[in-house]
Design a protein that fits this description.
274 residues, mainly alpha, two-stranded antiparallel sheet, 12 helices, globular
């Protein structure tokens, strides 16, 4: 989902914004944007934040988590993304980029709390295996809090160099990852203070942030994998299924903007030399 947003950011948004800045006569090409879906899932009061909040409450339950979701997200501005099923009160539906997915909340909190015990982490840290120690050191280094402020979630594009950066997902719980194992923190602990153990949701978000930061400093090439048929059989082609995937991936809009746009990039110096 985030890779889809990254793709939209580079291929559609930044591309067409550059044409506008350069005052090129351009007709804006519409595309399906999954940003509202990402906001519902990863927003300040989104699904993952509410799941973490409920998971840290001793009396938290799956039903109370669902109630919070309905209270916070079942609003007119989210009507196209977050939906309550017509029947039953144990599920919620999110309109993803390709289709609607209904999630049963039973077991959500239990799975989110299922983290590695402190004793296991201490045992792993005491390992003498060189490979395992390198893996753990790299994991702890990647999640260690720093004094530098987090990158602001803005989008910028340098017209002179052609470098592009997509927005970085703000993650208030990111620094808590591995804190129980490393004793991490930005200052001395208060007497009687309790270190919050990372949840599966916070670990997942931290890995996504790391992935997006890596993508933002690289020249990304996108590969779309299309299933020719539901059974994944060789030499069988289902036209409607393939067309649906192409539409969901934004391939048709990509073809249109590639045909109408200006894919070649020259600096002013290169152009002058020609």
């Amino acid at each position: 989902m985030l890779c889809v947003r990254q793709f939209n950011q580079h291929v559609f948004k930044l591309e067409q914004e550059e044409y506008v800045r350069e005052k090129i006569n351009w007709t804006f090409i519409e595309f399906s944007d999954n940003q509202p879906c990402i906001d519902v899932i990863e927003g300040k009061l989104g699904v993952m934040a509410l799941l973490d909040e409920e998971s840290r409450l001793p009396a938290g339950t799956d039903q109370s988590f669902l109630q919070k979701l309905n209270n916070q997200l079942a609003k007119p501005q989210n009507a196209k993304v977050f939906k309550k099923p017509r029947f039953g009160n144990s599920a919620f539906t999110i309109a993803h980029y390709a289709l609607d997915v209904t999630y049963e909340v039973e077991g959500f909190l239990e799975k989110n709390r299922d983290t590695v015990p402190d004793e296991h982490m201490a045992l792993l840290q005491a390992t003498k295996n060189t490979f395992l120690k390198e893996v753990l050191d790299a994991a702890f280094a990647a999640t260690k809090p720093t004094d530098a402020p987090p990158p602001s979630p803005t989008v910028s594009d340098s017209a002179s160099t052609g470098n592009r950066r997509a927005s970085v997902i703000p993650d208030p719980g990111r620094q808590s990852l591995m804190s129980s194992a490393t004793g991490g923190g930005t200052g001395p602990k208060r007497p009687g203070g309790v270190v919050k153990k990372p949840t599966q949701a916070s670990i997942f978000k931290a890995s996504l942030v790391s992935l997006m930061e890596t993508l933002n400093v690289t020249n990304v090439h996108y590969i779309r994998c299309i299933k020719p048929n539901e059974q994944k059989r060789a030499w069988e082609f289902t036209p409607q299924q393939v067309l649906g995937q192409l539409r969901a991936c934004g391939v048709l809009e990509t073809i249109r903007i590639s045909c109408a746009g200006y894919p070649s990039r020259w600096t002013y110096e290169e152009f002058a030399e020609r």
